[in-house]
Amino acid sequence: MQVTLTNQALNAVDVDALFLLQFEADGRPATPSYGALRAANAEWLNDVETSGEAAGKLFETTVLHRPQGFAAKRIVLAGAGKAAKFDSSTLRRLIGAAVRKAKSNGAARLAFSLDEAFATPEFVSAAAEGFHLGNYELDTHKSKKDERTEITGFHVVVAGKPDHLQEAFFQGNVIGEAQNFTRFLANEPGNLLTPPVLVQRIQEMAASVNGLDVEILDQAQMAKLGMGSLLGVAQGSPHPGFLAIVRYKPAAPASPDHLALVGKAVTFDTGGVSIKPADGMEKMKYDMAGGAAVLGAMRALAHLKPAIPVSAFIPIVENAVGGNSQRPGDIVTSLSGRTIEVLNTDAEGRLILVDAIEYAKRQGVTHMVDVATLTGAIVVALGHIHVGLFSNNDAFRQQVQASAARQGEKMWHMPLDDEYREYLKSPFADIGNIGGRWGGAITAAYFLKEWAGDTPWVHLDIAGTGWLDDNKPYMPKGPSGVCVRTFVDLALNWK
Ligand code: BES
Ligand code: MN
Ligand code: ZN
């Protein structure tokens, strides 16, 4: 497959479908590419405009076959919505939608025209990302693939010489591919992606790029260190647990900072002895979406080489039911020495994360972001739209939120007052692993905060956003790969 950024004359672009932006008529003059089309196909355009067929509404597409004066087989007007609201996030989704549409319409070679106003690094990077996001398919395990056209080429056509934009376009491609890598992993079922298999995938990924070092702690090593909290979850499964560490070090670090990305990777979450209801349990294969997001980001960073060191810490377990599973009421000792009463074995994410967080701190990291499909409560609070964001440090939180905003990933700042500590009291240990019925996403975050301590830390709960239950115009339902873009942006734009 060919993905390029070029500056061909629009009428010479020889593809199956050439997409042009069409804005809702709001007084803004037609973009130059639209003007070129208008000049050669005035009657057709008049018809579709006056009939209301092509009104420029967001994600609406109108197809003109065999356009006059153009080499392209079809011209597609890509509804871009209100010009005043159009930004790189809209373009990313619009291109995703255009690609998905093309695949069901038999168009294999695609081009997307970006008018001069949008020939910027931010827009061309978003364009490349949008292509990969829309091109992703969930049918890895179907012996007969879904009916669709394989895209063989995708070309972004800009006015003027695109040399200064090639780097941003490359970056967008790397990020889009990394996000799809994350989505692929998150979609793998629990029988095929067990903890040892995930470890293998991590090693394969690191071997396929330049500049990542992998270290795997096995159960014996973790026992020796004293990671009783992680091991308590792992013990119920026939598959051993691991802590994977993936390190990226720049040749010449630009700052003394060291960023840790910590990602929950429960390859399947049955709930353990505090077992989950059968209804919907199959979705718990994506309980490693946090770890997968961290891995996707590391894959991208290996290509894009940020100026600060970034290390990933990924605790990997299966939360299974078995004769050796931990019981409600068990008390485990975490790596930090704190004891935890396991009041509910289904609150396992926080148990594995705190040993990873403590280990990261001992490695000398200065900033930590963890990402986890941590609580059903965050889905109740924010639905599938916003990632739940918690932090112990305002400056670092704002830095993460700025990256998320640039990347079009919605994150909502949630409270984390000290009063919530009350909810986590245990009569028998230093802390309980659940906080009762109310504020479940907050008490989970508060539990992690106890281990984060004074290190600037942000926690991202992606239980709602890591998996989309419905198709969107720009993305099929299933794993979203959320947070990959924010992490890459955070590392590349480190302040
Ligand atoms: N993996 C789940 C959280 C989850 C729920 C992810 C829904 C995706 C969709 C997590 O391990 C869990 O089971 N959390 C419990 C915590 C409770 C026992 C305090 C929950 O949210 O019900
Ligand atoms: Mn659970
Ligand atoms: Zn879980």
Structural account:
- This protein is an alpha/beta fold.
- It folds into two domains: 2-159, 3-Layer(aba) Sandwich (Leucine Aminopeptidase, subunit E, domain 1), CATH 3.40.220.10; 173-492, Zn peptidases (Aminopeptidase), CATH 3.40.630.10.
- Helix content is 35%, strand content 21%.
- It has 14 helices and 20 strands.
- It has helices spanning 32-40, 42-50, 88-104, 121-135, 166-187, 195-208, 219-225, 228-234, 289-304, 349-362, 376-382, 394-406, 440-452, 484-492, and strands at 2-6, 17-23, 61-65, 74-81, 109-114, 153-158, 212-217, 242-248, 259-263, 265-269, 310-319, 330-333, 339-342, 367-372, 387-391, 411-413, 431-432, 457-461, 467-468, 478-479.
- Helix 3 runs parallel beside helix 4 (121-135) and helix 5 (166-187) packs antiparallel against helix 9.
- The longest helix has 22 residues, at 166-187.
- It is elongated, with a radius of gyration of 24 Å.
- The mean pLDDT is 96.
Individual helix count: 14
Estimated helix fraction: 25-40%
Output the CATH homologous superfamily of the largest domain: Zn peptidases
What is the arithmetic mean of pLDDT? 96
Distance between the termini: 36 Å
* Bound molecule kinds, no repeats: ligand BES, manganese (II) ion, zinc ion
Instruction: Please report the first level of CATH classification, the CATH class of the largest domain.
Output: Alpha Beta
According to DSSP, the number of beta strands is 20
